[in-house]
Structure formats: structure tokens, C-alpha cells
């Protein structure tokens, strides 16, 4: 190409057609090289990394500086100026690599232009323009990054850069006449062709950003799979269940490319596992109960991801760190460390940012799930405390009346009195010694019958109790869930004649057992119903409200007590849903 232009120069002129043809050939060469580079995985990762180290910046800078130098070498001389495509390499460095890469590569290119470019009369202006190209690209990096550019914007930016190039030639060339003649000959073809060349060159890197989108999609899919498989294991016991932690480690190693994985709590190792092919190379073994490594302790103290550094880390890991990247993240609940996750990744030529992001996602996911588990545990502890309070809430009037009744029965029927004493003993034994939170419905009903038998001895014919229950009741219900409601019916269910009527009905439905407790009293006061609906305390007794809250805790917010109240009596309904085994 140079020889063709040279022959035309010897003939006395160089046509616009020849200039355009020469620039097309140069641009095509740059585009071919860019296309090849964009397919190299290392180059892709370097361009996609928003936070590169000095090593990565220098490598990218040398690549784009190579484009600048190549453009200078294959420039085509017309009259006294060398047509070139330096703007493509210099500005692309800033647009694709960021501010530092744009600065470094354009500076390297400018030094080469200043020393080696010909003719010498344009060296200073060309060198200055080269640095300007790099800074211009760097300035627009935030706008063009991640492939979010428009080709019209890119075209206009390249045109503006070439205009700046022409201006620098005018300002920094000793001979104004030479500069003007050169600009007249070269300005239009260089501006138009280099702007088009910039679009062609940058287009070759579209695949890099497509690769990034695919990688992000894979990471999202991988995170979704890990969430679906890991969440149930964390929900069932958190970090304290060894069997689940083994399964969790198996899942993570299967779904990732990590070589080893270590779980700890705040004080000890919980689970260590690595791939069989990496056991010898990793050169680390741990078992349950071992002290936690320093990197785990550091991650928990700092509350963020920590990478192993040979200079400051444990010396016994320095050999492993030559082949593996070791990173640790903490699990935190209420801003307090509760454990850590440490992973070993096979060291590549450069760290994969996507793997680090995946590890951080696992940290967030694990911390969130452990926080939910902590909340559930606190909720259950509160429910258990309320349950214990209910167990020990012995109505002194009931005890006093029961003893008085038994004392009176002793004079007339000692055998009946003995049975009542046994019944009373069974009643209190169930109240005080039953540790299970869920019990068979039949046992709960027997406890209610003990209570009513004692009350029946007291009120005699003035207390009428009716049962309608099935023979088979295969379901677990919360302990002491019925007795407070029955006690309430006996206490307040008095009709106008002074009699007390209590009805207990149990019906099996498709998905639940419905229990109804009815009386013939005056009904619930309106303010009591409002307080129950708002979960507010009802008088000095916690019994009725406790039953309502426990039902919602076990079966769901919409499944508390259902109360139908009229001046002629009340009915309280409870639904015990099948399949619930524990609170």
C-alpha cells in the first residue's frame, strides 16, 4: 500500500481515493488483530474487570500501546505528513480499559511517536494528540463501559478527537504554512475514515460484553440452584447440624468449581471438605472441633471478605497459596459474627471476579437465612416461655374449691373422694410435668375431662357437659390448648336459671380437626373480643390470649380462635390442621 501511494506521489499527486484505500487497509489490519484479541479469554476478563490490579492495567496498556505503535508504523505518507489511525488505539484504550489504561497506553504511544515518527516537524503535535486521545477515551469510559455505547455517539467522539488532532498540529508545528497544507490534504479523509474505523474496531469487542452477560446469567442460575438446595439445610438447624453441613458442602462443591470448603462457627471448625484430586495439593486437613484458622477469625472480625496473603497469613498455608486462591467470608446476625465460610479456588492466570461475587452472594444468603432461623428460634422460645407460664398458672380458687369439694365428699362417699383425689393428681401432673409441646388430641381431651369431673363434683346437677367426639383422633395438638377455653366456659357460661352448660364437639374434616366449645352464658363482652383480635392482654389472665397466640404461631396468622358470641351463649372454634408435628 505504501508503494502505491509512493508511486502516486512521484507522479505528482495522491488522490482522495488512494488515501481512503490506504486508510481502509490500515483499519482492516487493526480490526483483524482486535478480533483475534477479543477471543482470548484473558483479554476478555481484563476488559470486563472494573477493579483491576496494577498488573492487569499494565498488560492492557501494553496491548493498546501496541495498536498505537502499529498505527504509527503503517501510516501512509502524503506530501509531508503521515496519515495514521493512532486515534483508534489510543481512544479505545480509555473507552475499554478505563482512565489508567487510557493514560498509560497513550503515554507509551506518545513517547514512541515523539522519538520515531516522521516527519519530525509534526512529532510534538502528534505526540500531544496521542495523549489527548487516551484521556478523551478515559473521560468517556463511564458512559461507554459495559457495552452501553451508541455508534452515532462513538462516530461523533472520534470526529471530535481528529479535529483536536488537527488543532494540535496547527498549534505545535513550527511552520504554519506546512501545517495548513497538510490539514487541507489530510483532515477530511482522516476524520471520516478514522471515525468509521473506531466503530469497526470497537465492534470487535461486542463479544466480550456478550460473554459477560452469559457469565452473569450462569452465575444467577448457579446462585438460584444453590439457594434452592442450600436454604432447606440452613433452615433445619443452621450451622449446628453436622449431617446438614456435610450435605451443604457436597452441594456447593458439586455446583461450583471450588476445590475445598471450610465451615466454622465462632470458635471451632464445623465441616471441612475438598475434592479428592486436590487433597494432596491443598495440604490442609481439619475435623469437627478443631480451632478456626486465622483467616476465618480475621473475616469475622472485619465483617467482610478476606483473601489469604502470604506475607501476613499463616505460614503453613503459604505453599498451598501458590496454587490456590484462599478466601473467607463471615456469616453475621445482628451485626455479630456467627460463623464463616472459607473456600479454596484453583489459581488461574488471574482471579475470576464472578467466583468472588458468588462467594459474597453465599455470605449474604447464609447470613440472611441464619438471621431468619435466629428469629424463629426466639419466637419459639417465647412461645415455650408462655407455655410454661400457662402450665404454672394454677388458679388458686380452683384448687381451693376442689379441695373443699373433696373434703365434703369424704364425709358422704369416701370412695368417690379417693377417685377425685386421683383425678386432681392426674390433672396437676399433666399441667406441671408434661414437657412435650405437641400431644395427641385424645390425651388433651382426657385432661379436659379430668378438670370437668372435678368441677362436676362441685356443681353437681348445675353443671351439664356434653361430648360429641369421634372414636379415632389421630392428630397432635399444642399442649394445654383446650383447658383454658373449657375453664372459661364453666366460669362464665351460666344461664338465667343458674345452670352451666358446656358442649365439646370434635369433627374430622378433610385437612383438619374442628373443635367446638360452647356455653349458654351471656356471651363475650365486646371489648374482650376486640382485645383478642388485636392480640392485647385480656384482663389479668393470660389463658385465653395465650391460646389465641399459640394457635396462630403453630398454624398461621389467620388460624387463631374463631369466636361466635351472642347474649344466649358463645362458641369458640379451633382448627387443628393435619401434618403439623412440632411448633
Helix content: 55-70%
Known CATH architecture of the largest domain: Orthogonal Bundle
Give the integer mean of the pLDDT values: 82
The figure for the number of domains is 3
Low-confidence stretches: 1-13
User: Using only CA atoms, what is the Rg?
Assistant: 41 Å
Shape: elongated
Strand elements, count: 14
Separate helix tally: 21
Secondary-structure class: alpha+beta
Strand order of the largest sheet: 4-3-7-6-5
CATH topology of the largest domain: Arp2/3 complex 21 kDa subunit ARPC3
Oligomer: single chain
CATH class of the largest domain: Mainly Alpha
Strand content: 5-15%
Distance from N terminus to C terminus (CA atoms, Å) equals: 84 Å
Subcellular location: Cell membrane
Pfam families: 5TM-5TMR_LYT, HATPase_c, His_kinase
Keywords: ATP-binding, Cell membrane, Kinase, Membrane, Nucleotide-binding, Transferase, Transmembrane, Transmembrane helix, Two-component regulatory system
Main location: membrane
